[in-house]
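Chapter review: from sequence to fold.
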Amino acid sequence: MYVCVFCKREMRCDKNSVGADFGDGYVYPADRWRCPVCGAMILATNIKPSYDPDYNFQDEYLRIRED
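The token string follows.
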């Protein structure tokens, strides 16, 4: 279960098959979760990345910034 730290409400799955893209084809498969009250979102990833150099395993990709 994922809980919104702002609203203290259980988050709901918003989208499956989202890839957390760390570049060079290394993508962590994930699901996107959203708070039903405030709309805050998180990306819950798998533990290990997949090698997806052509970016065709997931429905959507989110490029992760490395600041």
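Two observations follow directly from the output. DSSP finds no helices and five strands in the chain. The radius of gyration is 13 Å.
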